[in-house]
Amino acid sequence: MSDAVPWRASALTLFPDMFPGPLGHSLAGRALARRVWTLDAVDMRAFARDRHRSVDDTPFGGGAGMVLRPDIVDAALSGQDDGRPVVCLTPRGVPFTQAHAAAFAAAPGLVLVCGRYEGIDQRVIDARAMQEISVGDYVLSGGEVAALVVLDAVVRLLPGVMGAAASAEEESFAEGLLEYPHYTRPADWQGRTVPDVLLSGHHEAVRAWRRAQAERITSERRPDLWARRACQPPAPAGCHAAGAAVTRSDERIKR
């Protein structure tokens, strides 16, 4: 077991049994068992003050649903004041990106507040300077699944989690591009063959093909990412241009 201080994650939730969930398996699970990182699921209902263990109430101004109370969320956060970033998972947050994942991986850990119902009282979000983050333009039943997504993206960037550093650096978004297609055996499957260049043994030609494919797929499927790349200055010799936030984060990892 390593003497290094593990990266510490805390999930504030009404459903602690949802953790670690899929993060208990594969790369993240093995790293969790080796204490490369730790995960605490904090039951916010434990901080309720009445016999019904109430954690929510009706919204001021009317409307459907219930809102998590600020005093309950604040009390649950009281044991998490150790300098880690605090994230509120919400569909109105800024989109979660690989740059966020890299920044969180460089921090000592992360506190994730999982919303439910209509969300969390804005006053505690502001008072605790939470970062409001969304994992996509859709609505989930709660923040737990979103928290698992964020943790999976972050944990795989921690030192010692992935088998090869190049694997993390070459994947989708590491250079602001979507990933190129992959092929394996058999070389001919139901009449569909592998591109000849991948069988050629010419490494530079393979790299050029993969680069061209990544650029084509990104321009077709994610014009937002492609437009962001077009706004960047030319890359230095030996480097590829990327979105500014992503580039800075990746350089932090390499250092």
From TrEMBL:
GO terms of molecular function: tRNA (guanine(37)-N1)-methyltransferase activity
Reactions performed catalytically: guanosine(37) in tRNA + S-adenosyl-L-methionine = N(1)-methylguanosine(37) in tRNA + S-adenosyl-L-homocysteine + H(+)
UniProtKB keywords: Cytoplasm, Methyltransferase, S-adenosyl-L-methionine, Transferase, tRNA processing
Compartments, as annotated in UniProt: Cytoplasm
Documented EC number(s): 2.1.1.228
Record-annotated tRNA methyltransferase TRMD/TRM10-type domain positions: 10-227
Gene Ontology CC terms: cytosol
KW tRNA processing (keyword) present: yes
GO terms, biological process: tRNA N1-guanine methylation
Residue sites binding S-adenosyl-L-methionine per the record: G115, V135, G136, D137, Y138, V139, L140
A family per Pfam: tRNA_m1G_MT
InterPro entries linked: Alpha/beta_knot_MTases, tRNA_m1G_MeTrfase_C_sf, tRNA_m1G_MeTrfase_TrmD, tRNA_m1G_MTases_N, tRNA_MeTrfase_TRMD/TRM10
Region (Disordered): 233-255
Glycosyltransferase recorded as keyword: no
Domain of life (superkingdom): Bacteria
Protein family according to the UniProt entry: Belongs to the RNA methyltransferase TrmD family.
Function recorded in the entry: Specifically methylates guanosine-37 in various tRNAs.
HAMAP family assigned to the protein according to its UniProt record, in alphabetical order: TrmD
Oligomer and partners: Homodimer.
Protein name per its UniProtKB record: tRNA (guanine-N(1)-)-methyltransferase
Source organism per UniProt: Acidisphaera rubrifaciens HS-AP3
Encoding gene (name): trmD
